[in-house]
């Protein structure tokens, strides 16, 4: 069986504490990552920070106050079957690879599919693993609304519907994040220093002005950032063939169509790794 060390990514994009949420956001946008490992100066893994964490804690500025300190990890010698089970059982997209507490790499669902399953000869049809429920969104949905829908529905992508209800494209979290920009945001905090009574109040109040950066999405609809070039498979397409298509086109999900070309489901990389169990 294929080992973690054969499929994992060793050149990991991470963030070192102390650091701000803005720094994490900038890295997520630049490298198109939905989450980042958080390490200390000794390169020990201390947490994971995700876009979901940031959105749900809008008033926190320090990564240490936002990140998740509980996480699953694997070792380089573990088999990918064990990793697949951890990912599926915990609804994760990636898991850090640890040795003596230090971050050695990251192995994601897509790594297992593209660097592992794509090289195997698994002939089961994708019909066995595909999902008939396909997350969809209207092409004129504003980007900010689309991103929040993704967060609340825990979906990383949407098939995009045109005005006639037909599929016109596909959009994922990275497409939306990449379209944003970081703008300066001025925050004013009033400092009122007083004693036990009003006579001890210091007037006027001091104002502390802090300039930070905030990810701002443009006033654009989904159709302006979506991908319109769709790769498709049929329900009889073999699992390994689906994995090869994902690797070839650098994608994480493929629409499944019938003989008439109508959409009947979706096969995702997370569905494909179930074939290992």
TrEMBL record:
UniProt keyword annotations, A-Z: CBS domain, Oxidoreductase, Repeat
Top EC class, one word: oxidoreductase
Annotated Gene3D superfamilies: CBS-domain
Pfam families, A to Z: CBS
EC number: 1.1.1.205
SUPFAM superfamilies listed in its UniProt record: CBS-domain pair
Presence of keyword Repeat: yes
UniProt protein name: Inosine-5'-monophosphate dehydrogenase
